[in-house]
Write a structure and sequence with these properties.
- The chain is of the alpha/beta class.
- It contains 39 helices and 11 strands.
- An 11-stranded mixed sheet has the order 1-3-2-4-6-5-10-11-9-7-8, sandwiched between helices.
Amino acid sequence: MDSSGRSGAGGVAAYSNPRAWIVAGIAVAGVIVLAEAARRRRRWLRGKSTAPPDSGAFCDSLVLSPPPQAPPPAARQQLSDLTFAVSHNFEIEGYVAGFGNPDWKRTHTAASHTAVAVTNLLKQGATCVGRTVMDELGFGVTGQNLHYGTPINPASPSVVPGGSCSGSAVAVSAQLVDFALGTDTTGDLRIPASFCGVLCFRPSHGVVSTVGTLANSQSLDTIGWLARDPRILHRVGDVLLPAAVGGFIKGKRQLIFADDCFESLKVPSQKTVHVIESAVLTLPGYQPPKHIDIGQYIISNVPSLKEFCEPSTKMQEGNSALKALCTVMLLLQRYEFKANHEDWVNTVKPKLGLEITTRVLQAVNFRDDNIKSLYIVRSEWRSALKNLLKDTGILVLPTMAGYPLKRNSKQRLSSEFEDKMYALVSIAALSGCCQATVPLGNHNDRPISLSFVAAHGSDKFLLRAISDMYSTIQEQVVSASKLAPPPVINHDVDASELLKEKGNDSFKRKQWSKAVEFYSEAIELNGTNATYYCNRAAAYLELGRFKQAEADCDQALLLDKKNVKAYLRRGAAKERVLNHQEALQDFRHALALEPQNKAALAAERRIQKHLSYRLHLLHSAPRRSIGMEAQQWQQRRHPLRTPMDPLLSLAGSFFSAFSPSSSTEQGAATSTILLLPLPVAAARALSVLRRLALLATQAFISVFFAFLSALSPPPPPPPPSLAPSLPPPPRADQQGSPAAAASSTSVGRALGHVLWVASRLPVASRKYELVRGLAERLLDDNALAGGTAVGAVSRAALSGAFERTLRQLEASATGGGDWPAMELAARAVRTGMRLWKPAAAAVAPLEGEAAFGGPAAEKLAAELLWLVQKMAACGAAREATVQFGAAPRLGSRALVAEPTLQVALLRLAVFLFRHANSAEFEQDTGDKEGDKAAVAEQRMAMLRSWLPLLCRGSTGTDAPVLSGRERAEMVTVLEELIEKLRWEQQEEALALWLHHFAACPDTDWPNLDRCYTRWYAESRKLLA
């Protein structure tokens, strides 16, 4: 009783404890607050999901009106009464291009010119009504922007519109404009076009000028456009595309379907492949469609891609190649984005969305250890695709392999989805080929589309093809939508069936070895299917591997005793090895199962006739070898049917001529060897013997000369000189020059000696850094000591070292040296080696000249840059500029130099161009006209020698050496430098720029069109 009372009292105390009530009250209040917050968030999201008037597509509202239509007889403007929008990375005069990010807009100034593509459209009567939302900095594929919001997809409001040019696609799909422009780097236009159900055209890389757009990756960037009407798509192409691109091409078009790309598509083939095939059948001027495994084609024709491929089975090789292709594309994008914007990202540290932050960090932290191989893959892939498509081929593939994400979803794109997506867009992006995206209606309330890819430069050909096919394709889309949906097939249930189909396709193409590989992989996955063994036996028969074919038929009959094809193929294998009795039994087994089988009936009659012929030979000519007669009959029946070793065939024919004829078994054994006609076997054997004789002759010559060299031992090396090696004294014509002044004092001679020794040491030598460091210290000590005399010594020593190093580099560029005969021999060997290379690898960079370079040349170029920097520090850069400008042969050879050497020379040229434009360059000259003319001629010499390298070198698309800011500064330097020349020199310099600038289609730098326009305007005034 006491215990119960105590417990009851405790319970009452617990219930009356105020702390418990406080905790409970706080918990209830927290639940209420969270519920209210969730309710308000849902209401806010509903409010946000309400479509604004412009569907959230625009971030800048502006109106750019076209010039008025000129009166007749002037041509009518092609785009009059059409409106368009552009992405946020297009420059408009007086406005800041925001690049999808407020921090970018805050840290940049308004543009002084409008983008070239926008200007061309305005001239043809189109009206620009604004700039549209895009993913930040051109990254991202969903269309979601942290700062400007996500535009609403009119085709499917519940999903994202796709990116990065999401606003342009939404503006077209919502009928806010007639067409829109955007930049496509890694699918930035094609992805939103697919998600929003509009037409898109991505032109060939370098065909449409990108001047006036903010670059993400120059090797991949291209300006494309979107439209709802194919006629408008074509009209815009007529304005933006040059007249020479993809003119009228004779011949019938042929569509090539990338079957392996369609395998991962979630849309049934009756809504994709069958629609296009049915449309083509009703149109004139088309060849029958062709099907290809694009992944296997890449593996076979892009050898440099193998280092990027992951280890895989034969079945997965195609997928691995496509994944490697998109890897190269993304690595190239990261490298070039880093070269363009790394300084801005590290300085400003912009606020970015989570997905964009990840991609930007990957780019900024990218290491360019193997960058050269990326450009090699791009070049090989463009050539391979050109060989596949030629002039009239069009590759057909899905635009996207999956469905877009839900709008306002926290889910991120899976790695599998990204791999498939980038694999599809990389086919055109990395090759630079043109691609058109065409919508094909809906599937499961999601827009679907296909893409058509043509060879690089075939832009207008592809646009005309899309215009011709579009109406017929839409008719077939309507017909396909009325059909009953096909049964859902799970392609993952039995991959062996897929392999079997690939083997069948290879068999039809007479690719017997590849068919055997596919059938073998199918057997590894499913070894209980008799069809796989039977099909592989058929391929073995075509390859002449009769024992393997017979073994496969045996296995097939163990699994299925009523397999007629197995009996037929086993009988054919036995017949080929002249085992006629057992072959006849197999054919009769097949006839027992199928009495009307034509192949079995024909084989039975053929063998019975053969056996009766052998019986006749036994009675009429018993002394003749049955085997020899059988061999002759076999040759008449199946000439060259079975490839055999020619030496074995020749040996068999030789020994059969002397074999005894009394034994039938020996004759039969001999006949199994003789499966080639004797003349053919002899010809092949002679070819083999000829090669062996050539190899033996070469080996004999090598041994003979090695023997002669052993008889005459080389002379002993001379003893090392005890006196130090000194730089050569100045020539007679250099008396009084800086080099002579440097050698006139002990300090000058010592400094010149150190610089000369450093130039002679290889970079790999451990003494090089020591001597180089000694030279650095001596020059720094001279600078600290000050004084006119000490400064003159440093300038003279550096000028002499620069002249000497420049002369050495010129000698290596022109092939000069101490052994001209050896140089000629080396050139002959290199020429001979080029004859053995395939055509794609033997293309010379410029006018057939061989590239020069190597570690020695790279070391000399790096030393020149170091010497120039030191000369600039002590006021002697003018002498280096004059000497460098007087090396036109080196400037010409620099155009075909190896990339690493070309980069060093280009940086050196940029440094000296800046000095040539500075006031210091004119300090040592007076006010006389002769002195000014000499300065102008020296500047002109720099332009003649090194302006072509700026236009053609690795500065723009291929491998950006300079950042975007450095390139802009360099354009200003060149413009100012040209304006300081005489009038006729300006004409010569601008003509030189235009020639080399136009000859390099992959880069828009340096763009001196403003300078050219100013000069032309001033020249026109002289006419008045």
